Every structure is written in structure tokens, then in C-alpha cells.
Amino acid sequence: MRQFSRQSRSGRIMLAVGLCALLLGTSGCTRIRTHQGYQVDKLLVDSVQPGIDNRASVEGTLGRPSFAAQFGDQDWYYVSRDMRSLAFSNPKPVAQTVLHVRFDPAGNVVAVDRMGLEDVAKVKPWGEKTPTLGRHRSLFQEIFGNIGAVGAGGMGGGGGATSPGGGPNGS
Questions:
Q1: In terms of pTM, does the model score above 0.70?
Q2: Residue 38 buriedness (CB in 10 A; 0-12 / 13-18 / 19+)
Q3: In the CATH hierarchy, which fold is given to the domain comprising 29-119?
């Protein structure tokens, strides 16, 4: 009877250890959600009207933009992105909103455009090599190709005994 209780006790302990390991193992792979950029408030964004608002009223309503146009101050951009990832994986975008507010030269709102994640261009690298211009040389040509070229005439190396003055005797 005593032996039976030891087996059941050790079984319970093993079950408890197994459950703890399972809980700790799954908590390390939790989903991480992050938000980057402007916090979009649909009511405030919809209140910006072309022909009615100007730069000052847009700044008062939406705040300073994420960034402005590089040339001139005609365009303001408000960028918002939601990301999701598992513990150690690369984050992937779930949602993105780019609010583009365009102004005329007088500073009045001309248009308010919205772009989402579907408008983002996906760039895929081509192959495993980057094509380059120039000579195509093998590994051995790269390693041994300069033998004998060091100090050759016209290469800027020490081809002769010249002094700093330029001529053989400093003249």
C-alpha cells in the first residue's frame, strides 16, 4: 500500500512539472502587437475639409504631421502602422494608414487622401546575387590577378627612385 501511494505521488509531481513546463513554454511565444506613428482618430480626420481648413486649423485638429514634403511645405503626411509578431520572429504589418493632406500655395487644404496597406509596394529581391557592372573574375583571378602589377609603370607605385621634388635629383 505504501508503494502505491509513492507511485501516485510521483505521478502527480511529474504531471505538475509537465503542466508548468507547458505553461512556461507557451508564454514565451506570445503574440506581440505594436503601434507605430500617428494615432488615427477617424472623427478628427473626417473633420478636415478641403476648401474650409488651412495649415493652422489642420495642425490644431490633427497635430504636427509625421513628416512634410521634402520640397516646399505643400504636403503633410500622417503615418500610422500596426505590427504583429511572435516572440523572436520579424514583425509583420497588419494595418497601415497614410493620411496625405495637400495644401495650395496660400496654405488652404486642397485634398485629403487616405492610403492603406494594400497600396504598399512589395519589393522582392532578385536571385541570390546582386548584378554589378564591370569585369567578371573568378576567385583565383581576384586573389592572384594583381601579382606583378604592384610598382608597374603608370600604376602609381614605386617604379623608380625619385625624390619628392619630382625629378631624379629633386628638380
A1: no
A2: buried
A3: Beta-lactamase Inhibitory Protein; Chain:B, domain 1 (3.30.1450)
